[in-house]
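Today's session is about reading a structure prediction critically. Students often jump straight to the picture, but the first step is always the sequence itself: look for stretches that repeat, for charged clusters, for runs of hydrophobic residues. Only then move on to the predicted structure, which in these notes is written as discrete structure tokens rather than atom positions. Here is the chain we will use throughout the hour.
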Amino acid sequence: MVRRACGARIRAGTSIQPNAATGACMQLIDLQAQYHRIKADVDARIHAVLEHGRYVMGPEIEELEQRLADYVGVPHCIGLSSGTDALLVAMMALDIGPGDEVITTPFTFIATGEMIGLLGATPVFVDIDPRTYNIDATLIEDRINERTKAIVPVSLFGQIADMDAINAIADKHGVPVIEDAAQSFGALYKGRRSGGVSSLAATSFFPAKPLGCYGDGGAAFTTDSDLAERMRELRNHGQSAPYYHPRLGINGRLDTIQAAVLLAKMEVFEDEVARRAEVGARYSDMLSGIVTTPTIAEGCTSVFAQYTVQVDERDRVRAVLNEAGIPNAVYYPVPLNRQPPLYSDVAIPHSEAAAERVLSLPMHPYLDIEDQKHVVSTLERAVAK
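Below is the predicted structure for this chain, in token form.
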């Protein structure tokens, strides 16, 4: 049974109505199906928070942090109010500020470069590997100088960047690495989990992420006890003891109710990661020879935060998908160094080429085969026109 997309769920803004026969909508990410699966646990955990009333820094925060740290395989996890704040606090813990440079990729969401700029530092953009969309590690070393304060690779679309090569370069030059793991939580790199492949990492629990809460949320991970203590203070106004503030911080605490939701979702997360892999493999098999499908690097897995293909004449293809009731999205149409606040004229040919051609299709653990067949047949028809 094919489910069509409601108009409000299509980012291009078309006015498609629900399927007349079923009343159901195909969704880019189906959070409702997930909620119905874990409803009893979610409701019970939220009710427990309402009963104890510790809405800020309640006991669920510490429980979640330990659960996440154990899952990732690092000693320290710090819950934060968003993935953006996780990046910010990680950079603040390294004392990144005016005059410093941070090497990162231009092909990512604005938050990565935004936090660098807000701290007064300069983002130094390095082009991507066109196969994986992640930063090209072979281009990093040439951009390192005495002002380089950190390297921030982004594990895009659910796959971890080439962290062995990146860490080796960083170690050679004494530069810390912060993995931006906002889209890759749950993925593996040579047996290690995203969030645990560098000395620092930041992830997001925005609802659409592979592990998402019911609002904004995030976490930072580290193997360094001193950095962990700094980040715990920084997320709480720089406070080390009640009303004693040895450093300036932010209000970046994770809400207790969001931690409760995440604890419920952790119970099914490994199963959802496996389902995502199955859905991604089916897409790649069915779309082989039709469009450019994702490349998973050797030794890596992907949690397919998005299933992203490349097409020619993207606007026309999207119009066909929209007409057929298939939600879709473009991540990301404008590289960061072409955005006015972060503008740089550095050459990024692979990022610019990707920005013109990428298209993300419906992707979530509950996407059934019939819906996928509908997506694939429509996309095949669209690219053949």
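Discussion point for the tutorial: The longest strand covers residues 76-80.
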